[in-house]
DNA sequence: ACAAAAGTGTTCCTTCTACACCCATGA
DNA sequence: TCATGGGTGTAGAAGGAACACTTTTGT
């Protein structure tokens, strides 16, 4: 059944899972347990199973690698990577996904994932196996533009957060300062971006901040443009 | 070599090739010569060859179906489509591309492509084989946002065009009127969007219009937003 | 002169930007 | 009362929307 004209190949799914942690943008990186690239850092991922849709494979891999429920966080397809020779095992095409989640502790998960760890993007860049450096760069760029045009920043936060927390997400992901005064107005003035919970968070020093949860709106019009 | 855990599959490339023709947005559609969906309209495409990169496969299919040089026009990946059952022949994952080109006559091409024809998007929508209706919808939406944020509209035009021609592209792709006065100013005032050729086009009746060619800039900042 | 399409000037309005200023709290 | 972060007011600049008006041609 396999011929040369249109040959069979294996399809993998790779995940660039981003979070904001300790005021830096971090990516979930595993250390490869097997050849090829054994011992090298890489993005989590794995092969598509027989009768599985591509997003389902991404959700499954996410659960296997992090122990988390992929239906609860943001997961979007970036694109397919298929350069011949990108995988020394043979012809493998990978569909890359961008995932975004709050800063949760990584369950010291089972099988494959014992080595999963958060690593600052700046530190991971240039060190990853396969073509994962390229995937990571495109994932970060996608996340940056998503913050401009969607309310996605809230998925970096937990169930409740202050406007300052949300602003910190923008500053860390964009790598540039954002004016706190104008940012508050913009967020609060955009219907459906955030909803007040009624609670407040009292800092060690300073005025308490109102707590919010993510609103129903997903797109941002007008957008919040980077400088 | 094929096991159930991570099975082999075939990878296809499908192309949503758009142009503006007779004041409508049209898509290149073929009539399928073979099963499955024999006789039904579909997007052009085909299987990836053994040692071929994915964009190369898209360029090759474009050449085979239209006789045109895919290196000269805009070609960008949309995403991978891999729902089980999307192709009755078995497990086939397709990487879809958006292509944009000027309104050129279709060479009555060779092998596969004798049935290639331009069809208005509104007319093609809902009639295509496989999941190509979904691909077409996403291609059109991508093209619409590309016009907002990039200078891509010029690739719908030939080597030289008037500002009116370019405005017509926006009106047809967006499906809404655009103010001619403000549009001129915006386009001419954006450095690198268009360059004057020095020639003019003299219409049957009316003031001659200056001719332009595409400029070097690709992104559009500030963008041209839809209403 | 007239039709048709190209292009300019101007006014109003929304939004962004920058920054002065006030508010609420714990130590 | 001070430090700290939360939040409001406001003036200026930039850009978009709407539209009156002028320009350039062939018939």
Descriptive overview:
Chains A, B: Residues 8-142 form the Nudix hydrolase domain. Chains A, B: InterPro entries: NUDIX_hydrolase-like_dom_sf, NUDIX_hydrolase_CS, NUDIX_hydrolase_dom, WH-like_DNA-bd_sf, WH_DNA-bd_sf, WHD_NrtR. Chains A, B: This is NUDIX hydrolase. Chains A, B: GO terms for molecular function: hydrolase activity. Two copies of one chain form a homodimer. Chain A is α+β, with helices and mostly antiparallel strands and 227 residues long. Chain A folds into two domains: 10-143, Nucleoside Triphosphate Pyrophosphohydrolase (Alpha-Beta Complex), CATH 3.90.79; 150-214, Arc Repressor Mutant, subunit A (Orthogonal Bundle). Helix content of chain A is 25%, strand content 27%. The first copy, chain A, is built from five helices and nine strands, in the order ββββαβββααααββ. In chain A, strands 1, 2, 3, 4, 5, 6 and 7 form a seven-stranded mixed beta sheet that branches. Chain A has a two-stranded antiparallel sheet with strand order 8-9. The longest helix of chain A has 18 residues, at 132-149. The relative contact order of chain A is 0.16. Chain A binds a DNA duplex (27 and 27 nucleotides) through residues 162-164, 179-182, 184-186, 188, 202-210, 222, 225.
